From TrEMBL:
Pathway: Cofactor biosynthesis; FMN biosynthesis; FMN from riboflavin (ATP route): step 1/1
Residues covered by the Riboflavin kinase domain: 2-130
Region of the whole protein represented: 101 to 246 of 246
UniProt keyword Amino-acid biosynthesis present: no
EC number: 2.7.1.26
Any single GO CC term annotated in Swiss-Prot or TrEMBL for this entry: mitochondrion
Record's protein name: riboflavin kinase
Length: 146
């Protein structure tokens, strides 16, 4: 298996859809992080942990792929951190571990269905990452080696 998968990347500007349209801001990572993915890494939605710069480690949900709902032409890695940040953090570094595969990236029949799926992903991530077995992955020593 390819999980857990450790990665890091710089937060770049995306299409500005996550926050406004989907009530779910996603930190889009630079193309270097995307190119570093193993070729056979499946597109989809994952849960894990992440931190911004040298900040605290938080739970996250992320997607890897082409955002079929929006017919993007390039693959992106987008990380939604399950934490309220006081401000945007473009140009920061994100270090993260993808631990759990949640679902493939689908195209939905409506924006509402996509939003419901994302809300469900967040709940599932919150719940599954609370499992005591996951705690070892929140060690900042591990993160400092990424
Ligand atoms: P973009 O298309 O530029 O990625 P988004 O609407 O997806 O725009 O918003 C993403 C930005 O929101 C991130 O780059 C980050 O600076 C900010 N942000 C604020 N809170 C969060 C969070 N909890 N998780 C991810 N990004 C967040
Ligand atoms: Mg985004």
């Amino acid at each position: 298996r390819l999980l857990p998968y450790f990665f890091r990347g710089k937060v770049v500007q995306g299409f500005g859809r996550g926050g406004k349209l989907l009530n779910c801001p996603t930190a889009n990572l630079d193309s270097t992080a995307v190119e570093a993915l193993p070729k056979d890494f499946p597109n989809g939605v994952y849960a894990g942990f992440a931190r911004v710069d040298d900040g605290q480690i938080h739970k996250m949900v992320m997607s890897i792929g082409m955002n079929p709902q929006f017919k993007n032409e390039i693959k992106t890695i987008e990380v939604h951190i399950l934490h309220e940040f006081p401000k945007d953090f473009y140009n920061s570094m994100i270090e993260a571990i993808a631990l759990i595969y949640l679902r493939p990236m689908n195209s939905f029949n409506s924006m509402d269905e996509l939003i419901s799926a994302i809300e469900e992903d967040k709940r599932t991530a919150q719940f599954q990452l609370d499992d005591p077995k996951m705690r070892k992955w929140t060690d900042s020593e591990l993160f400092s080696k990424i």
